[in-house]
């Protein structure tokens, strides 16, 4: 019976040891330490975890630190219930390791003369005496979390292609460049013909954790100008192609065009001339936000995001043309010149709030982050337009009047066309990061943002008027009233960044 009792105690002891080992392994598996470093303490441990400072965690150095430079085998551990001894053997004193310190008169009890280390238990109560040279284990300390962050990213984004009516058209020599004539194509403008190319930019995100559960931050991003342009490259005579500025003539009524350069077009004198056209889009954003922890667990965390948002979206469209008469068979004089300039600018200023969620999952040195939120607020829409015609006869300007092909008059000094509209802008970001050194990660991600209500220049062109007045000074242009048109806009692309925690 005694033998059976001893066996039960052995089994119970073994089960307890296995249970303790499993619990320890589970604790280690559930820790939020992202990785271990050779030669430095793990710097991403949870607050309150005990770590060693200034310790080389490589297997060889750990063995040398705790058991000496010379190879030593581990002492067997006594089994509970066996008759192999009454106590667990004590490991040999740690001698001649990287933390060894010669004893002397400066040695004091308890810390071996250095407050950074504790005395090994085998050294006794003091450094002197028969202990001689004594190694110390590093004093354990509590590792604090990083409480600030900064992310710098390069943006490689594509902005939605924008649409206009055809602004510069061309056809073969001898054919009018009018939209309703076969062979006419658009040189500049058209349906989704402007923009859509890659734009570079940058994004900064920085902030501070005020507690484990709450932090504040700021975010700013900017995209370089997304532009599209076309040019005749100087004066062209129309012998290769005819060029014009199309419009709808209410006098015909039908499609018509202001001839820039043409040769042999029926019912018209010949012209030579030039043109330039350009469209540009600028976008920037500034945000201030707070974040509060909602969920957390082993290797993951979800925060509630809320704060203030501001966006700026500026769209500019300009078209300039010069037409010089080279024949006078129908009317006018050779050398008569018509210069027409149009400029349309729209500004969109969003002021509002944001709300959303940010989640992060950590697995070793890798982390995956998602950010989804929506911006809600007021979009201030501003329209500014200017059109000017200048006529020159005999080399001397004879008249200049408001009104071009795209913009009637000058609206830069009025706010009558400005409006405020409530709008929303959903945003989504995903990011994969790799921590290649303590507190520093490199990331690659994807971003998407969409604005529901934006005023764009190309949507607010009204090139419908009485065509017989466009080149006959000083007749006024008559144009039907047009309505403001709002549209949506989105931008998306790749983010390449560096994340620094400190």
From TrEMBL:
It holds the Pfam family BBP7. Residues 1-25 form the signal peptide. Keywords: Signal. InterPro entries: BBP7. It comes from the Bacteria. This is BBP7 family outer membrane beta-barrel protein. It comes from Rhodopirellula bahusiensis.
């Amino acid at each position: 019976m005694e033998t059976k009792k001893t066996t039960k105690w052995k089994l119970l002891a073994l089960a307890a040891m296995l249970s303790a080992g499993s619990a320890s392994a589970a604790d280690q598996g559930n820790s939020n330490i992202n990785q271990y470093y050779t030669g430095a303490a793990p710097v991403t441990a949870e607050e309150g975890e005990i770590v060693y400072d200034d310790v080389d965690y490589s297997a060889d150095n750990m063995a040398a630190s705790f058991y000496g430079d010379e190879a030593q085998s581990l002492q067997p551990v006594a089994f509970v219930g066996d008759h192999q001894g009454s106590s667990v053997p004590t490991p040999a004193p740690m001698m001649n390791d990287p933390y060894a310190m010669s004893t002397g008169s400066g040695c004091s009890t308890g810390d071996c003369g250095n407050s950074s280390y504790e005395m090994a238990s085998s050294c006794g109560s003091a450094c002197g005496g028969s202990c001689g040279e004594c190694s110390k284990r590093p004093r354990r300390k509590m590792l604090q979390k990083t409480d600030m962050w900064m992310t710098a990213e390069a943006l490689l984004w594509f902005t939605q292609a924008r649409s206009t009516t055809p602004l510069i058209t061309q056809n073969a020599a001898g054919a009018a460049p009018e939209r309703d004539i076969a062979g006419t194509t658009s040189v500049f403008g058209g349906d989704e013909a402007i923009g859509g190319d890659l734009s570079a930019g940058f994004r900064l995100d920085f902030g501070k954790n005020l507690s484990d559960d709450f932090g504040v931050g700021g975010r700013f991003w900017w995209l370089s100008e997304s532009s599209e342009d076309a040019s005749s490259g100087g004066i062209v005579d129309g012998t290769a192609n005819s060029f014009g500025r199309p419009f709808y003539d209410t006098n015909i009524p039908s499609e018509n065009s202001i001839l820039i350069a043409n040769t042999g077009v029926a019912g018209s004198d010949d012209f030579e001339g030039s043109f330039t056209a350009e469209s540009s889009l600028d976008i920037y954003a500034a945000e201030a936000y707070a974040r509060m922890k909602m969920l957390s667990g082993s290797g993951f965390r979800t925060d509630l995001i809320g704060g203030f948002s501001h966006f700026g979206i500026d769209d500019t469209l300009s078209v300039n043309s010069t037409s010089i008469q080279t024949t006078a068979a129908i009317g006018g004089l050779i050398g008569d010149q018509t210069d027409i300039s149009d400029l349309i600018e729209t500004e969109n200023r969003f002021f509002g709030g944001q709300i959303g969620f940010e989640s992060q999952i950590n697995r070793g040195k890798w982390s995956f982050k998602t950010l989804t939120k929506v911006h809600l607020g007021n979009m201030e829409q501003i329209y500014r337009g200017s059109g000017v015609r200048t006529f020159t006869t005999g080399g001397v300007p004879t008249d200049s009047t408001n009104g071009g092909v795209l913009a009637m008059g000058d609206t830069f000094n009025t706010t009558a066309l400005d409006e405020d509209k409530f709008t929303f802008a959903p945003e989504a970001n995903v990011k994969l990061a790799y921590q290649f050194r303590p507190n520093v990660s490199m990331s690659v991600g994807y971003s998407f943002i969409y604005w529901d209500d934006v005023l764009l220049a190309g949507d607010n062109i009204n090139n419908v008027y009485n065509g017989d007045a466009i080149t006959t000074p000083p007749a006024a242009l008559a144009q039907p009233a047009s309505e403001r048109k709002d549209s949506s806009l989105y931008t998306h692309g790749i983010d390449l960044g560096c994340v620094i925690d400190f």
